[in-house]
User: Fold this.
Amino acid sequence: MISHTEEDYLKALFRLVSGKQGKQEAGTNALADLLSLKPASVNNMLKKLRKKELIDYEKYGKISFTDKGRQIALLVVRKHRLWETFLVDKLGFSWDRVHDIAEQLEHIRSDELVEKLDWFLGHPEYDPHGDPIPRSDGSTPTTPSAVLSSMQKGDVCKVMMVKDTSAAFLQYLERLSIHVGTCVSVMDKVSFDNSLVIEVDGKHHTVSQKVADNLYVSYC
Amino acid sequence: MISHTEEDYLKALFRLVSGKQGKQEAGTNALADLLSLKPASVNNMLKKLRKKELIDYEKYGKISFTDKGRQIALLVVRKHRLWETFLVDKLGFSWDRVHDIAEQLEHIRSDELVEKLDWFLGHPEYDPHGDPIPRSDGSTPTTPSAVLSSMQKGDVCKVMMVKDTSAAFLQYLERLSIHVGTCVSVMDKVSFDNSLVIEVDGKHHTVSQKVADNLYVSYC
DNA sequence: AAGTATTGTTAGATATATCTAACTTTTATA
DNA sequence: TATAAAAGTTAGATATATCTAACAATACTT
Ligand SMILES: [Mn+2]
Ligand SMILES: [Mn+2]
Ligand SMILES: [Mn+2]
Ligand SMILES: [Mn+2]
Assistant:
């Protein structure tokens, strides 16, 4: 049996090791940071997860998943993103309010529930923030690789995914009428600080490079 | 902050003290039985709940709610029954599969979620087993008082609520096509053991007194 | 290569929630 | 009313999950 806490550790490890940079392993401190816990607590849990054969790890070494561990992490992520989709699509939640609730719902144990929820939502591929929802077979829909900050003056693109899903950033995007699926035209690029002048819904806005780095897009 | 465990204790206490017999208090052993725990564990928790002012209780005395405690118990029951309604009405679960899942979902913390779920379900008054769903103001819809076993030969009534909601009993009712809302005619009553011959959907069945005791009905 | 900074580990404390075994109080009954 | 049964309590053990403070290993920098 895997506890809520253990699931949260595996999910955090998943976030660290599934980074685009190809890293397949992570360290104690990084995990502690992500979970807002102390390294001592993480170290303690790592021993438990190793004993349960959910991670590979040896003293002073790096941490990586076993197949069993990765499978559990994927299921927790799948549940998290399905619930977020439910909260936004069915219950009418705003996309910046769903994370904390999904953080709880992701731990509900019932295979039947997950599959019925998936059906009820129409087998969605992406959650409200554009993140891919892992499928029950363990595969994952493709994710866009281009960020808005790499676009040039004159480019027109569609927002596909939001990288930073903090409530603050999501609320900021809300004010700019930017959602997943929104069309954005790059009107100008300021070479001094790489900020962009963009057009959304006929309105012009200036966004910093940091903002543009956090918006994945595809050409359209 | 109230833990999942504390919520389960309060919900169990609610079941004991809201019995129709007018008992407003319960004992350590009864609570232990209901929760499948040992009296020592319950005693331990009672001290915590008292310190948090959720129950009134003194050594060797009986246990009853404070207003604060009753309010929390009612909210947990409300959430449990709303989630059961969601599982059956929206996800297509069978009514004998929802209890264990709702047992988990009832602990999800979010006032906004409860109210939006209630709206999404159309403000239901009764759950799939006919149990009343406490309202957000603390009031509770009325419940039927007559049981099928009190009906006489020739009576026609409608099933309003199922008392024993164990999977075994619910599956038995399923085989007889008996649900909440089903019309039942009493064709005969065997005075020897009080078993009943009933007609449901044009079919005749014989049910024991024990079964009939567990079906709340109203005349129709 | 030496010294320093970063990263990771251990020991021991605290909090929650459970148990068993022994004990005490209250209630029922002979 | 004395005794037995039932109900309730306590002490001490175990398991989980966290922390702080002290320590150890590895990596970085000059
Ligand atoms: Mn979580
Ligand atoms: Mn998301
Ligand atoms: Mn529960
Ligand atoms: Mn129910």
